[in-house]
Structures are given as structure tokens and as C-alpha cells.
Design brief:
The protein is of the alpha+beta class and 419 residues long. The chain is built from 12 helices and 20 strands.
């Protein structure tokens, strides 16, 4: 008589949870896999990622380089990515009819440019493998005796031989309370990947203006990042700001999101003050009668150029021959180090990313299994791992989910042999 199937409960219906469930079911037929989702929706971050296109991974294939894209978890990722890398992600989706296309900045999207393509792919696998999805089945308690006992929000008690926690990141430490019985250390969560709020700052009048390569620095810290920036109606966004927020997540939280930052708008030119003085001299010589505000310099958007010119006290009608010394100094300063007072942050609820979570020292990187409780696994953002923007957080989800599934399938095999 065949042994009854072992039960794996995957807690969380996001990218990491789905990937773990699919891989475990495909590797081990003697496994009943159940995905427990606390809401009525699954794969919500997949759906909205990349503006609805889904930034699946990043075309960075050297693991030492790739691991440096993670402010928390670099050393952990240097090991885990050897098991399942971006190349493996690309191949996994290709094997299931989904082509991923690399963009100029390395981000990779499905060729359809539709996140639904990724969702449909994952759902086809779930249906093919007869994985059960339970909606509105949030886990409120978890205990381990001979097997796991999960207390669900509807009062139901569910038994499982294996549990993979893939619940994503929680914004507050209190939301980890239901996990306290497991005895794991929780690194207090703080937001990562957020934008800088500039309440009532005049630069917000330029909403929609972007610059492809700036340098953002936070005063009093070592936080600095380069890349594109976007001016919004509430402040500053874009990859340079998001990366700064990720690398500075803990420091900026300690500052209560009140700090000064500077932007070098012409970072791409690698100019210093002397270089710019030379530029001013050339402008006077060549375009003495031309209005300063009429034509942008340094490839800056004209609206931004005119804003900086006006901020330096230069009148709209002034030409280059009338540029005063003090005006020149101010414009130079604003180009190289435009200072803003940041007061608060904006995070996007559905795309919320946290620094913090289960301490990595208590998780086996080669199996994603708890070092404290046999049969308990972790995948995705619940771990104290977070990457910068660009597909890196999804790659960690695929990697950790794949490793956990492989280990669970192997454990079922061992149990079957012993039986």
C-alpha cells in the first residue's frame, strides 16, 4: 500500500511562494502542496511590477557583481545564487513558453510587456500540478510537534509535514508576532525603496521632468547613488533616489526621514567648478547676446535649466554678456550640488519592500531551512534580504523558492526510503 502523501503548506501567494510550490510539486509527486493566501488575490507584486510589465530579473550574470545589488543579504546571495541564477530564471520561463527580453539598463521583461504573461505561466503550472490555492486563509498561529499545526484566520486548524513561509515583508515588528513561537530572531523591519518627499518645495512644479544620470547624496552620511532621477508632484523619485533609500534604509529610518540631500544634475559630465567656469567663459565669448534661459546647457531638460537659472537670480531677459559673478557662482552650485530638505517618504503599498525580517544567520543558505526547526523553510522577502530596483528582489524570490522546494522534495524522498 503506497504511503500517504506528505503535506507542504506554502504560506503566501506571491512570487516566492508560487515558485516554491510549483518546484516542489514538480520534483516530488508524493507531495500534496497547498498555497495559503490571506487575501482574495495572488501574485499582486508580479501584477504591478514594472508598471504592469513585470521586471522578472536582471541581466547580470556574474554572481559577485549581482550580489552587490542587495543592501541586505549580499553574502547570503553570493551562495544562494549559485543554485539558481538569472540564467536559470530565463531558462525556466523559456521552457514554459515565456521569452524574457533585456532592456538597455539590464532589466528583463516578458516579450509581451505584460505582467499577466508571467501570472498566466505560473497559474498554468499550478493547475497542471494540481496545487491547491486557499484564499482568505491567513495563518494566525504556527506550532511544531510531530508535525506543524497552522491556525487559520477562519478558525480552521491545518496539519502539515513541511511549511515554507513566503509571506513577503512586514512593515512593522508587531506583524511578526504570530511567528514568535518559532524562536527565530526578527531583524526589525524598515522601509526600503521609497521616494523622497519635498513638501511645498518649488522644484515639484517640474513634475514629470527626468534626468538620466545624476548623483544623489544625503548630508551627514555616506549614502550616495547615481542614476536616473524623476521629479514628481511630491518630491524626488527614480532609480538614483530608490537606490539611495535602499542602501540607506536603516540610517534614514533613524533620521525619521528628515534630512538634507544634494543633487549633482550634471554628474554625467564629471565636471568640477573649474570646468564649469570654463564653460561660462566660452558661452560669453560665443553667445554674448543670447538669453541665458533660452537654450539649455549640459543636456538638461529645458524646464529644469530655466528653473535653476531663475533660482540663481538670473532674469528671464538676461543674456550671457550680463551674467554677474554672484549669479554665476549660484548657478554653478545648483548644477553641482542642488540642496533640498527631505521631509518624509512615499512608499507604494503594493510594491512595498522592507529591510529586515528573519535573521539570515538562522537559515541554511543551501536549503532555506530553519536551523532551529526541521521542516520549516523560508523564501522571499520574509528573509532579511532586499535588493535595489531592477528585478533583483524577484530574482531572490525565484532563487530562494527554488532552493526551498529542492530541499523539501529531497527530504520527502529520504523519508520515503526510510519508510
Amino acid at each position: 500500500m503506497p504511503n500517504p502523501k506528505k503535506v507542504l503548506c506554502v504560506v503566501g501567494g506571491g512570487a516566492a511562494g508560487f515558485f516554491c510550490a510549483i518546484q516542489a510539486a514538480s520534483l516530488q509527486e508524493n507531495l500534496r502542496v497547498i498555497i495559503l493566501e490571506k487575501t482574495g488575490k495572488i501574485l499582486q507584486k508580479v501584477k504591478i511590477s514594472g508598471g504592469g510589465r513585470c521586471n522578472v530579473t536582471h541581466a547580470c550574470f556574474e554572481i559577485p557583481t549581482l550580489s552587490k545589488k542587495y543592501p541586505r543579504g549580499e553574502n547570503f546571495l553570493r551562495k544562494s545564487l549559485h543554485w539558481f541564477s538569472p540564467k536559470d530564471t530565463i531558462q525556466w520561463f523559456a521552457d514554459r513558453g515565456v521569452t524574457l527580453v533585456e532592456e538597455a539598463d539590464g532589466r528583463m521583461f516578458p516579450s509581451t510587456n505584460q505582467s499577466q504573461t508571467i501570472i498566466d505561466c505560473l497559474m498554468r503550472e499550478v493547475n497542471r500540478l494540481q496545487i491547491e490555492i486557499r484564499y482568505h486563509a491567513g495563518v494566525q498561529s504556527i506550532q511544531k510537534n510531530t508535525c506543524f499545526q497552522l491556525g487559520l484566520q477562519n478558525g480552521e486548524q491545518l496539519s502539515a509535514d513541511y511549511v515554507c513561509l513566503a509571506v513577503g515583508g512586514y512593515p512593522s515588528l508587531q506583524q511578526f508576532d504570530w511567528l514568535q513561537s518559532l524562536g527565530h530572531t526578527i531583524v526589525p523591519p524598515v522601509p526600503s525603496l521609497f521616494t523622497f518627499n519635498l513638501p511645498k518645495h518649488p522644484i515639484t512644479s517640474l513634475m514629470g521632468v527626468s534626468v538620466p544620470n545624476v548623483l544623489v547624496k544625503v548630508h551627514g552620511t555616506n549614502i550616495k547613488q547615481e542614476g536616473p532621477i524623476l521629479i514628481t508632484h511630491w518630491g524626488l523619485s527614480g532609480p538614483a533616489v530608490l537606490k539611495a533609500s535602499a542602501w540607506g534604509a536603516t540610517e534614514l529610518a533613524a533620521l525619521k526621514y528628515e534630512f538634507k540631500a544634494t543633487i549633482n544634475w550634471i554628474h554625467a559630465f564629471n565636471y568640477n567648478e573649474q570646468d564649469i567656469r570654463t564653460q561660462w567663459s566660452e558661452q560669453r565669448a560665443k553667445y554674448s547676446t543670447q538669453k541665458i534661459a533660452a537654450k539649455s546647457m549640459f543636456n538638461l531638460p529645458i524646464r529644469l535649466w530655466q528653473f535653476l537659472v531663475a533660482s540663481a537670480g538670473i532674469q528671464e531677459h538676461q543674456n550671457w554678456s550680463t551674467l554677474q559673478s554672484e549669479q554665476q557662482k549660484l548657478l554653478t552650485k545648483f548644477l553641482l550640488a542642488y540642496e533640498v530638505q527631505v521631509s518624509g517618504k512615499t512608499t507604494f503599498k503594493e510594491e512595498f519592500v522592507t529591510a529586515g525580517g528573519i535573521s539570515l544567520s538562522e537559515v541554511d543558505v543551501n536549503t532555506m531551512q530553519s536551523k532551529k526547526i526541521e521542516g520549516l523553510y523560508f523564501a522571499g522577502e520574509i528573509l532579511n534580504v532586499d535588493g535595489v530596483t531592477g528585478g533583483f528582489n524577484f530574482q531572490h524570490a525565484w532563487t530562494s523558492g527554488w532552493i526551498a522546494a529542492k530541499s523539501i522534495a529531497h527530504s520527502v524522498n529520504e523519508v520515503s526510503v526510510q519508510s
